[in-house]
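Page 47, continued from p. 46.
Same chain as before, 225 aa.
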Amino acid sequence: MSILCDLLQIAPGVTALIGGGGKTTLLRALAEELSQRARVIVATSTKMLVPDWCPVVLEASAASVAAALEQSPCVCVGSLHAETGKLDAPCLGFSELARLAKYVLVEADGSRGLPLKAHEGHEPVIPVCASRTVCVVGADGIGGIISQVCHRPKVFAQLAGVPAQGAATPEAISAVLASEHLHDVLYINKVEHPSQLADAERIASYSATPVVAGSLWKGEFRCLR
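Result:
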């Protein structure tokens, strides 16, 4: 079975996850793989749901994070947002977190669960020290109506050069990714049928970065570029 963290070339240090729906699931999958090798910290630079699959250290100091990592190879670090109950960015800087754990995985934007995403000027919030940025595209959004399957549909449509009521074709998605130029590796998730693989291969044919396609649900992945 292909190891996803190797296909995505996740290196020690800080990795940011951006793009469409599936980032949190990808965050967990990578954390579980990497924590078999070394210590891992997961966090957000914006907001994320509090994970129930690893210990959470709130309002953390370096000492409290280090102590938590002695008990578990993977911990989540953040500050609790009182109004929403979600996690905010941690008090400690991401470069400091990277001195405490070999791998730091950061969810760096939101998509409201939609499979596709374009970005406003204030997002994503990629840590300056990030060595890799993985962009997630949900295959279940390919071919759908932009206004229905995309977060920030007006921005997406403008960058793609198509109406917001038009289709999010592989070519439209590729145009947005190329225009934003925010990532250095692309992960296309929910590729579970031959037609979705064909769409993923079309996106990969336009890509200037490595492209991995697969299904987190099935645990099957392949490198397309």
